C-alpha cells in the first residue's frame, strides 16, 4: 500500500483478500509511526537508507515495514509474522521495486498525482512481487 | 553474382535458380547494401513488410536465415530470407528444409516495377488491378490479410476522423486518380501526392499503375465509418482488388500512417529526432477522447524508456495504439512486436519526411489549442484564450504546465516525479495566472495551449470587461446583472504590490459568491474538492484562489503554479519571485472565473425557467384532461347507478 503526503491511500493491495479492512486499519495506524520517524529525521539529505524506514511495528500477527520517498509518498508493506523467511534485504528490494514502478507511473502524463493508481504495469509488478514474496 | 548461386544459411547451401538469382540480386541491390555487403535494415524491413507475411513469420524467417544471429542481413542471409519468404508465401513452414527445393519467387508488394517485371511466373489472378501483385500463393494469406487490411483502412480513416472533420467515406470506387485525390487526408491533399511519390520509390515506376493501385488502397481506407457494414463491402472489394496495404497485422504501422504520424509529430515538435514532452503529448492524445485510463495505459506501453517524453518511434507507437483503440481493438498488455521502438525506428528511417506542414500545422496547432475536457464545446473556438473556471475534478494541472517554455516542462518532468500531490482542482486559476505571466514574454504558440478550460468566451474580451468591471465591482452588489458588466463577485484589482489587498477582495468575492445560491453550489463543490484534496497538507501550500478565507495564506496562493514546476521543497525560494507578478495576474485570473461561472449559472437558470414554463403548461393541460376524465367518470357512474336497479331486478 502506498499513501501520499496527504495520507490518502493511493494504492492498496493485499494477497489474502479477506481481512482487507484489517490491513487498512493497520496501515493507517502505522502511518503514525512513519510520521514520527520522518519528523524525527531532520536532515536534508535523502539517501536510500533514510527512505527505508525498516520495521515499523511488530504486532502479534504481522510486521509492518515502511518506506518513504522524497516526495513524502509512503509505502507500507504488511507481512505475516509467520512468514519469517523474509529478510530485511528482500524487503528493501521490494521497496526499491515499488519505488521504481511508482516513478514510472508518475512519468505518465496522464496520471494525476493524487489519483488512485490504476496502471496495469504497476499492478502487475506488485502482483509478481507479492506472489514471489508470500 | 557468385554468391548468388548459393545462399549459405546456417551452413546449409541452397541453390538458386536463375530467375531466383536475378530476382534476389535485384532485391539485394534494392536494399542498399553497404560496402561490406550488409543491407540497410530499414530497406530490408520494408521489403519484408511488403511480402505481406505475418509478423511472426517474418521473425521466423529472420531467425532461420541467420540474420538474427548475425545482427544484420548479409548477402547469404538475405537470399536465405527471400527463399524462406517464398516458402512461407507458398504455405510451407519456415524451415531450411522447405527451401531446399524449387519455389516460386517471393512476392513483394509495391516495391519496384522492375521487380514486377521479374515475376513473370506470378500471374495476376482475378485481381482486377494489375501491376502490383496478386500472387497465386498469396491467395492463402489473403483471407486473413483481409481482416487486418480492413482494420488498417479503418485505422487510417478513423484517425482522420479523429483529427479532422469526418470526410465522407462514401467515395465511389476510386479507380481514378481523381477519387484518389479526394482522399480525405484532412487538409493535406498534398500528403497523398507525397505518398504517391513515396510508394513509387523507384522513379521509373509509371505513375499510372501506382495511381491505380493507390486508389484501391485508399478505397479500402475509406470504408471506415461503420466497420461492420463496410467491412463486408470492403471484403468484397478486396477480393476484387489488389491489396496494396502491407500487413496482416493491425499492429503494424503502414507507410501512410507513418507519414501521418510524422506530420503530427512535426506539428508538436519540429525536430524529428527530439522528444515530445509528456505534457504536450498528453494534451495531444487527450484530444482523441479516449478515456484517461486507456491513454495512461497506452502511454505506459509506448514510453519504453520511461522518461516521461516520447521520441518519434514512441510517438508513432502511441499514436498507432490510440488509433487502433479507437477502432475497437483492445489494448494489448504488452507492446506488440511490430510496435517495438526498434522496429518502428527501422521503419522510421525509411519513412520519407513529408513536408506538408503548412496546412497541417495550422490545423494541428489549432487543435492543440483545444482543451481536453471541453473539446466538445470548444473545438470551434480554439483561438480563444479563456480558460473556463468550471470545477473540473479531473482537470489536469499539467496542461497548464505545458504552456510554459519547453525547458520548464523539462524541469517539470523531473519534478513531477518527486512531486507529492499537486492540487489539481483550484490550482488551475493560479496556473492560468502563471500562464498569463508567461504569455507576454513568450511567442504566440503558447496561448493555444493554455486552454485547460476554453469556453466560448473570449479571454481578451473578458479581460477588458473584468478590467472595467472591477472598478465597479466594489460598489455594486448586484448579482446576476448579466456578465457584461462583470459581476461584483470580482475582487477589486489592487496594484501589483498590494498582494494582501487581494485578500479582502477574495473574501468579498466569496461572500458575494455565497449570496448567489447557484454560485454556492459551485463554490461548495470546489471547496469540497479542494479541501478533500488538500486534506491536511500544510496550509501554506494550496489555497483556493477565490474561496480562500485564510488571509495569511493568500500570499501563498501564487505559489501553486510555481509548485507545478518546482519542487515543493524549494517553494520558499520561489514565492517571493512568484508573488510580484503572479499577484497582478492572479487578480485577473480570479476575476475571470466568476463571470464565467455566473454566466453559466445564469444560463442554467434560464434553462430551468424555460423548462419550468413548459412543465407548468404541461401540468395545466394534464389538469384539464383530468377534469374531463373526471366528468366522464361521473357520468358513467351515474349511468351505472341507473342501470343497476334495472339489472338487479
Automatic annotation (TrEMBL), chain A:
Keywords: ER-Golgi transport, Transport. One of its GO terms (biological process) is endoplasmic reticulum to Golgi vesicle-mediated transport. Coiled coil: none annotated. InterPro entries: Longin-like_dom_sf, Sedlin, TRAPPC2L. The keyword Transport applies. It is found in: Cytoplasm, Perinuclear region. GO terms for cellular component: perinuclear region of cytoplasm. Belongs to the TRAPP small subunits family. Sedlin subfamily. This is Trafficking protein particle complex subunit 2-like protein.
Automatic annotation (TrEMBL), chain B:
Residues 569-587 have a biased composition (Low complexity). InterPro entries: EF_Hand_1_Ca_BS, EF_hand_dom, EH_dom. Pfam families: EH. GO terms for cellular component: cytoplasm; plasma membrane. Residues 166-176, 484-495 have a biased composition (Pro residues). Residues 133-181, 358-598 are annotated as: Disordered. Residues 290-325 form the EF-hand domain. It comes from the Eukaryota. Residues 144-161, 374-398 have a biased composition (Basic and acidic residues). Residues 20-104, 257-341 form the EH domain. Residues 362-373, 507-518 have a biased composition (Polar residues). This is RALBP1 associated Eps domain containing 2. It comes from Cyprinus carpio carpio.
Amino acid at each position: 500500500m502506498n499513501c501520499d503526503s496527504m495520507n490518502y491511500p493511493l494504492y492498496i493491495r493485499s494477497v489474502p483478500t479477506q481481512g482487507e479492512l484489517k490491513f487498512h486499519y493497520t496501515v493507517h495506524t502505522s502511518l503514525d509511526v512513519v510520521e514520527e520517524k520522518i519528523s524525527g529525521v531532520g536532515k536534508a539529505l535523502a539517501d536510500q537508507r533514510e527512505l527505508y524506514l525498516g520495521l515499523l511495528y511488530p504486532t502479534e500477527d504481522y510486521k509492518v515495514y515502511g518506506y518513504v520517498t522524497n516526495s513524502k509518498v509512503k509505502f507500507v508493506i504488511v507481512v505475516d509474522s509467520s512468514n519469517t523467511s523474509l529478510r530485511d534485504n528482500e524487503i528493501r528490494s521490494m521497496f526499491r521495486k515499488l519505488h521504481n514502478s511508482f516513478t514510472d507511473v508518475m512519468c505518465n502524463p496522464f496520471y494525476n498525482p493524487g489519483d488512485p493508481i490504476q496502471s496495469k504495469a504497476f499492478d502487475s509488478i506488485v502482483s509478481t512481487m507479492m506472489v514471489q514474496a508470500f | 553474382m557468385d554468391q548468388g548461386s548459393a545462399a549459405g544459411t546456417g551452413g546449409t547451401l541452397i541453390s538458386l535458380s536463375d530467375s531466383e538469382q536475378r530476382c534476389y540480386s535485384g532485391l539485394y541491390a534494392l536494399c542498399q547494401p553497404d560496402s561490406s555487403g550488409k543491407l540497410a535494415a530499414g530497406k530490408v524491413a520494408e521489403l519484408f513488410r511488403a511480402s505481406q507475411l505475418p509478423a511472426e513469420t517474418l521473425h521466423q524467417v529472420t531467425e532461420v536465415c541467420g540474420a538474427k544471429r548475425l545482427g544484420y542481413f548479409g548477402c547469404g542471409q538475405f537470399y536465405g530470407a527471400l527463399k524462406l519468404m517464398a516458402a512461407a508465401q507458398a504455405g510451407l513452414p519456415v524451415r531450411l528444409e522447405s527451401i531446399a527445393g524449387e519455389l516460386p519467387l517471393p512476392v513483394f508488394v509495391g516495391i519496384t516495377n522492375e521487380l514486377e517485371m521479374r515475376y513473370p511466373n506470378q500471374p495476376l489472378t482475378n485481381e482486377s488491378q494489375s501491376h502490383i501483385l496478386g500472387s497465386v500463393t498469396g491467395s492463402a494469406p489473403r483471407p486473413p490479410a483481409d481482416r487486418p487490411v480492413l482494420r488498417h483502412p479503418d485505422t487510417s480513416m478513423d484517425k482522420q476522423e479523429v483529427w479532422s472533420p469526418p470526410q465522407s467515406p462514401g467515395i465511389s470506387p476510386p479507380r481514378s486518380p481523381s477519387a484518389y485525390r479526394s482522399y480525405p487526408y484532412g487538409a493535406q491533399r498534398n500528403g497523398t501526392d507525397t505518398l504517391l511519390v513515396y510508394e513509387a520509390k523507384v522513379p521509373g515506376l509509371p505513375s499510372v499503375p501506382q495511381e491505380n493501385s493507390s486508389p484501391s488502397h485508399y478505397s479500402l481506407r475509406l470504408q471506415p465509418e461503420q466497420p461492420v457494414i463496410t467491412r463486408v463491402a470492403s471484403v468484397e472489394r478486396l477480393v476484387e482488388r489488389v491489396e496494396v496495404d502491407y500487413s496482416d497485422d493491425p499492429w503494424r504501422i503502414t507507410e501512410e500512417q507513418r507519414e501521418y504520424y510524422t506530420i503530427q509529430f512535426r506539428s508538436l515538435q519540429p525536430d524529428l529526432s527530439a522528444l515530445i514532452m509528456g505534457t504536450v503529448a498528453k494534451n495531444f492524445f487527450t484530444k482523441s477522447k479516449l478515456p484517461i485510463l486507456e491513454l495512461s495505459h497506452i502511454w505506459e506501453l509506448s514510453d519504453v524508456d520511461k522518461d516521461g517524453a516520447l521520441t518519434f518511434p514512441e510517438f508513432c507507437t502511441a499514436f498507432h495504439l490510440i488509433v487502433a483503440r479507437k477502432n475497437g481493438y483492445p489494448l494489448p498488455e504488452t507492446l506488440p512486436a511490430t510496435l517495438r521502438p526498434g522496429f518502428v525506428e527501422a521503419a522510421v528511417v525509411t519513412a520519407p519526411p513529408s513536408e506538408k506542414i503548412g496546412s497541417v500545422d495550422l490545423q494541428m496547432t489549432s487543435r492543440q489549442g483545444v482543451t481536453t475536457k471541453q473539446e466538445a464545446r470548444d473545438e470551434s473556438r480554439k483561438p480563444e484564450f479563456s480558460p473556463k473556471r468550471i470545477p473540473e475534478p479531473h482537470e489536469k494541472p499539467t496542461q497548464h504546465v505545458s504552456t510554459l517554455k519547453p525547458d520548464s516542462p523539462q524541469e517539470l518532468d523531473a519534478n513531477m516525479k518527486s512531486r507529492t500531490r499537486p492540487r489539481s482542482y483550484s490550482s488551475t486559476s493560479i496556473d492560468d495566472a502563471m500562464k498569463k505571466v508567461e504569455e507576454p514574454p513568450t511567442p504566440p504558440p503558447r496561448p493555444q495551449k493554455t486552454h485547460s478550460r476554453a469556453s466560448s468566451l473570449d479571454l481578451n474580451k473578458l479581460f477588458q470587461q473584468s478590467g472595467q468591471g472591477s472598478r465597479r465591482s466594489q460598489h455594486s452588489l448586484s448579482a446576476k446583472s448579466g456578465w457584461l458588466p462583470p459581476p461584483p463577485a470580482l475582487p477589486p484589482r489592487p496594484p501589483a504590490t498590494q498582494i494582501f489587498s487581494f485578500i479582502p477582495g477574495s473574501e468579498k468575492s466569496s461572500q458575494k459568491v455565497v449570496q448567489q445560491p447557484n454560485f454556492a453550489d459551485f463554490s461548495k463543490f470546489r471547496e469540497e474538492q479542494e479541501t478533500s484534496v488538500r486534506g491536511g497538507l500544510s496550509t501554506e501550500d494550496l489555497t483556493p484562489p477565490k474561496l480562500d478565507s485564510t488571509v495569511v495564506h493568500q500570499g501563498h496562493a501564487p505559489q501553486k503554479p510555481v509548485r507545478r514546476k518546482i519542487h515543493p521543497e524549494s517553494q520558499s525560494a520561489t514565492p517571493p519571485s512568484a508573488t510580484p507578478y503572479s499577484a497582478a495576474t492572479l487578480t485577473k485570473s480570479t476575476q475571470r472565473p466568476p463571470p464565467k461561472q455566473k454566466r453559466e449559472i445564469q444560463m442554467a437558470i434560464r434553462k430551468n425557467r424555460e423548462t419550468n414554463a413548459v412543465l407548468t403548461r404541461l401540468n395545466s393541460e394534464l389538469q384539464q384532461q383530468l377534469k374531463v376524465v373526471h366528468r366522464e367518470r361521473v357520468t358513467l357512474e351515474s349511468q351505472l347507478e341507473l342501470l343497476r336497479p334495472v339489472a338487479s331486478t
